[in-house]
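Slack export, channel: ligand-projects

TW: morning all. Re-posting the request from yesterday since it got buried. We need the structure predicted with the small molecule present, not the apo form. The ligand is S-adenosylmethionine; the SMILES is in the block with the sequence. No rush, but it would help planning for next week.
GE: picking it up
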Amino acid sequence: MPSETPAPDTAARSLAHWSEAGRREMEAFYALARLDYRLLAEALDYPELFRGVRDRAGGGEITLLDVACGSGKFPEALLEHTDLPALADDGLRVAYDLLDPAPFSLTEAAAVLRPPFQEAASHEVTMEDLDAGVGPFDVVWATHALYALQPGNVDAAAMRMLEALAPHGVLLLAQGTHDGHYLAFYRAFLEGVRGGEGTEYVSCEQVTDALRRAGAGDTHGVDVRRLSYEHVVQDDDREVLEGFLQRCAFDDTVSLEEMRAAPVLGDYLDACHDAEAGVHRFRQEVDLVLLTPTDGIPA
Ligand SMILES: C[S@@+](CC[C@H](N)C(=O)[O-])C[C@H]1O[C@@H](n2cnc3c(N)ncnc32)[C@H](O)[C@@H]1O
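GE: finished. pasting the full token output, ligand included:
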């Protein structure tokens, strides 16, 4: 059942859906999208990365800012799929600040934190509006985080992320690329369902370029790794298929049948349909961007 009339544009709809009213749709989405975080957790040697940061920070507690924390799927995946929890026994303590404009997200993410992550401050604000006095942090990360930024605010958000990073610190950005499913689907949705009205999602390339414009390449090495994979959903798992796609558009007022019947979007969905196997395959392309101080941190 539709939970609300969609607000006019992407940023406002994103904020409205990061709420208790959006929980059902969020859970259908993560039935598939949990994979995004497991693959990120498997892509780097995080214990090694944290050991390096701790050495540079002079030992003791590490500070971390989770930008656009959402419901905390990234820290959850790290706790489940890496050896980071064992580092807590080795004395690692990460003071974990959460940032998100949605209070729902701050509460959800706080609930998943376990050692070595220890909840510290919560910042109910957008990245671009984070108070200049907050930081610097030893680690700043933004994972599948900044799709709904207003395009005019991308530079301000990138600048503020860099300012919030300690000189010896590490920044990790992971986000869908221009051609991956999240952005391609939403472009087709806006074109086919909304008559071309509305703001497209921001790509990883756009945020990376903005980080470079803000001077990331002067102080840090910028390493970009591309992850390519598929989200596969059975055709008869209608609830997950529809819920996933609705969440991809932050719009639960458009049914699966309406999406299939729409121009442009219908063609996109047809192209994702493997009728022989009875599944839809959504081709993801995600860049994992790691900024490390120029004198290097093993990662
Ligand atoms: C897909 S979630 C992020 C997922 C999260 N990193 C995780 O580990 O589960 C996107 C989040 O971005 C937040 N958001 C939207 N616009 C934002 C902005 N301008 N600055 C910071 N966060 C924003 C939303 O409220 C939402 O909670």
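GE: first-pass observations. Residues 102 and 249 are 18 Å apart (CA to CA). The pocket of S-adenosylmethionine is lined by residues 14-15, 18, 67-74, 100-102, 105, 126-128, 143-145, 148-149 (CB under 6 Å).
TW: perfect, thank you
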